[in-house]
Amino acid sequence: MTTPLRTVFINHGGGPCFFMPDGAMGPPGAWNSMASHLKALVPSVCPKKPAAVLVISAHWETEEPTVLSCANPPLLYDYYGFPPETYELKWPAPGDPALAARVRELLEAGGFKTGEDAKRGFDHGVFIPLKLSFPDADVPTVQLSLVVGLDPEKHLAMGRALAPLRGENVLIIGSGQSFHNMSGFFGGGFEEPAREFDRWLNETCVGVEPRQRSERLRNWTAAPSARAVHPREEHLAPLFVAAGAAEDEPGERVFADDVLNLAMSGFAFGATSECVAP
Description:
Elements: E1 7-11, H1 32-39, H2 41-45, E2 52-62, E3 66-68, H3 97-109, E4 115-117, H4 124-133, E5 141-147, H5 152-162, E6 170-176, H6 182-187, H7 191-206, H8 210-218, H9 226-229, H10 237-244, E7 251-259, E8 262-269
Parallel strand pairs: 1-6, 2-5, 2-6, 3-4
Antiparallel strand pairs: 1-8, 7-8
Helix pairs in contact: 5-10
């Protein structure tokens, strides 16, 4: 039997940062380590491409969990004030209506009311990082929304409901940022809060028993510098879903670096897996 795929929480960068001239957003090389991690994402999680990808992005919130159900999603250039060429980026990955229906089925079995959207495109929390991870845009991809209110337990429960997808060769990606305070990105003075929160997050995701991890994530606002790092938690909530989908399994830090002098981390959850080629 194939080991279920691990889930992963990635940092998706700032707007279209990976597709701008080096030094255009911060010092030269500022985003290089993050880009390298995203380019190696599939080999680091499983040795072959998954059959499909489910992405929970920080940039879509709805009243109930909602899936993008169209067969050929457009791109939603939901970033502002960047060079014109960044609004011409392409990533024509197909959608997967059957997977979208399966996601709804699992969530509804877990007690959620769900919705679908056949018109919305992939936002930049999907196509910017996945353009690096899947440059050929050849893996069917479905996006799932966060739920308004960003309740940690609700998103952990979403992950628990979606866990069977891991055994169906679907890679679950939470796409956010472990540090997300715009004042910190552009104003400085957040280096120590970022380090404090990053230490707590690493201990939570890697250093405690899996069930303790869930309890700590439910109470993440008690972490050191929590609100300094996440004034609003939409960029942390995708991690809750990824962790919930492997709730009884270990975590591993798969990315760690200071980006713009701010400590950031990415994590995988679940036993090391070997996925089956589609």
